[in-house]
UniProtKB/TrEMBL annotation, chains A, B:
One of its GO terms (molecular function) is protein arginine kinase activity. Transmembrane segments: none annotated. Catalyzes the specific phosphorylation of arginine residues in proteins. Appears to be allosterically activated by the binding of pArg-containing polypeptides to the pArg-binding pocket localized in the C-terminal domain of McsB. Residues 14-245 form the Phosphagen kinase C-terminal domain. HAMAP family: Prot_Arg_kinase (MF_00602). The keyword Transferase applies. GO terms for biological process: phosphocreatine biosynthetic process. This is Protein-arginine kinase. SUPFAM superfamilies: Glutamine synthetase/guanido kinase. It catalyses: L-arginyl-[protein] + ATP = N(omega)-phospho-L-arginyl-[protein] + ADP + H(+).
Amino acid sequence: MTGWLKETGPEADIVISSRVRIARNVEGVPFPHHLIEAKGGEIANMVYDSIVGANSGLKEDFKLISMKELDEINRFNYVEKHLISPGLAKNIDIGNMLLNSEETISVMIHEEDHIRIQCLLPGLQLNEAWNTADKIDDLLEEKINYAFDEEFGYLTACPTNLGTGIRASVMVHLPALTLMGYIQGVLRAAGQIGLAVRGIYGEGTDFLGNLYQISNQVSLGITEKEIVSNLQDVTLQIIEKERRARENLLIGKRIELEDRVFRSYGILKNARKITANEGMQLISDVKLGVDLGFIEGIALGKLNSLITMIQPASLQKHFKTPLNATERDIKRAELIRNTL
Amino acid sequence: MTGWLKETGPEADIVISSRVRIARNVEGVPFPHHLIEAKGGEIANMVYDSIVGANSGLKEDFKLISMKELDEINRFNYVEKHLISPGLAKNIDIGNMLLNSEETISVMIHEEDHIRIQCLLPGLQLNEAWNTADKIDDLLEEKINYAFDEEFGYLTACPTNLGTGIRASVMVHLPALTLMGYIQGVLRAAGQIGLAVRGIYGEGTDFLGNLYQISNQVSLGITEKEIVSNLQDVTLQIIEKERRARENLLIGKRIELEDRVFRSYGILKNARKITANEGMQLISDVKLGVDLGFIEGIALGKLNSLITMIQPASLQKHFKTPLNATERDIKRAELIRNTL
């Protein structure tokens, strides 16, 4: 199972996962949206050889997976596990990914850029994620000439990624700040210091399940380490705010909070039809209940993985059959009941 | 425990209880709202002697309870058990009741009329309730001169009770007719043939928990047996309609129905705060689930008694302490969890 899902990391009560991705392009080759199939395969092989090659010294067990060889359910299952982007999943012609067996390191080939190295770890492990992604980047740079400009740094298909080509992000669970109505202030403050806040499945998605993805918006004119340490600092502040909000809820609204948590728990364990959105909200309540000690005997990792397991493609992969929306709601409820 | 609550009777899946009450007044004595305390006590003793007297032949174990000797919680606990009316509970000066140990027969003294004999039985037992009430009426008539007019029959404080002085009623649980939106038609049809439909706690109360009290509106120009058999016939028709609606739901909306039932069950077993109104709706769903075989291992009688147990006075009686509204919501949830 996917590394960031099966385990929990530091600050697991609030931080679900940490991610660093590095965007790189190969010099002299058109960006992926202008690339034809034959040329696309070349870069995939270059990446594979650079990382898996005899001299790389990397102990990880990687495999190269082309989008073409996967059916839609499997492609979007990787999206739901945050290992690839929806853009790559749709790029059936030349999309490829290199993935380690732990599913903590993925290299997308021919997403928006030629190469996107990603490291995704459970809990607050931004430095660890950065170090790992950086190591992969170094391996690639030994064999590949990156498109690089003295003034702009690493060149990318979209100007927002110019410079370091780095995006660092954390996925945080902020139910108390949300419940108390403080979240808007937190998000505004994050925006003012150059951070973007998105829902769990990227730009334009709602903040389902009280989950927020916080990432740097600027990658130019700042070092990689600054990007990572800025986000780390802000995340620690947000953790502190969320913890304080939880304490305040416990003091002022304990019974209301218990009621909410246990109702959600009762619905999750009994419902016969659940949409993904409702499921995420209910799981959020139960996660909070586990964090606060209201509910015992449920591992946080189980709840984290449930968030992904109830998504459409993961659900169909689990039940090994295509399901329409109504069937998914029914099977989703079944899966949740069996898991809890 | 109260007879109609502890057991279930015929057609228990739909009919909670059957009731017959007979209104009588003593000749030559002003109606209760003009009565002074001393005179009030006289009638209570007459009733007691008539029923409990050595020659009555009645095996039932009765006791005379004056409203004055009960605190508010105990008075309204009897109201919630449908053994007395709110009017009697408020008539502390001269209100009395005679009650058998099974709590199936109660005689209210100085409610709106001097004497109101009531028999309340579980399930559809209108004839049995009528026979029992009639027997008590005969016993009283041996010793008491009833106010009677050749033209109008038994005289009562309110003209709507003139004639036979009888009101027969059933309390029915009609969740499927309600869910499918057919209930308005059923209620209209009942109205057109001279029946009144009220909520569980009488006129002006909502149809909480999908419970409907159906009773005759006319007691003049019709015999007692006709009143009882008319209501019996209509009740059998309504039972038939509700059963058909349940079958249709099972065919067309089984999963939605299961989902509703189990969600309500999950909430009942887990919530930490429940209002009486919400509790009644949730219990209604679970009752339907038990009737349809979705949920096993819960006796219908337990759910029936829960409806009464979660009412404000019963709750305070159970926990042996006065509780404000918020405390009641919390204790109600506790009681429900412990019961299920």
